[in-house]
Amino acid sequence: MFVLLDASTTVAGGTGTPAQSGLSSWLFWVMLIVVVVAFYFFIIRPQKKQEKEQSNMKNSLRVGDDITTIGGIVGRVVKVKDDTFTIITSRDKTRMSFARFALRSIDFRAGEAYDPKKEAANVKADKAEKTEKTDDKPSENSENK
């Protein structure tokens, strides 16, 4: 953009004055610094914050927590080692071991009282998300008309 401004002053008025080229050079560096700062605050900083929260969650995993893995498997933690944990899934007491990086979320903490209001809010949010997804898909009847 600044190159176009310099070119237009050269064509219209002959040669650009040194003050104009110094001003456009100064504006270029200011804009570059603004872009770098914005990039840091809108992209890098939030990503680092999210990574830190994920790391803290994975390191705070303990026996008795109800968890969900990245594959969608839900279970209760029965054993925690350095980089792995074992969960029980279902009534059949099926045991599965996972690496810590496979942990998506801790649904309920061990020793935390069961809160039916919190569970109901989670169910309502899931239903609302599903209906939004189905509303986005066009129906077959509308395609045939």
What is the topology?
Layout: H1 2-13, H2 18-59, E1 66-69, E2 74-80, E3 84-89, E4 94-99, E5 103-108, H3 116-136, H4 140-144
Antiparallel strand pairs: 1-2, 1-5, 2-3, 3-4
Describe this structure in words.
It is elongated and about 80 Å long. The protein has a five-stranded antiparallel β-sheet, with no helix packed on it. The chain has four helices and five strands. The relative contact order is 0.08. Strand 1 and strand 2 form a beta hairpin.
Rounded to the nearest angstrom, the radius of gyration is 28 Å
Task: Using the coordinates shown, work out and report the CATH topology of the largest domain.
Answer: SH3 type barrels
Helix content: 55-70%
Order of helices and strands: HHEEEEEHH
Strand order of the biggest β-sheet:
4-3-2-1-5
Shape verdict: elongated
Strand content: 15-25%
Structural class: alpha+beta
Q: Give the CATH level 1 class of the largest domain.
A: Mainly Beta
Question: What's this entry about, in short?
Answer:
Helices cover 55% and strands 20% of the residues. It is built from four helices and five strands.
Identify the notable features of this structure and list them briefly.
alpha+beta, 2 domains, 4 helices, 5-stranded antiparallel beta sheet, 20% strand, 145 residues, SH3 type barrels, single chain
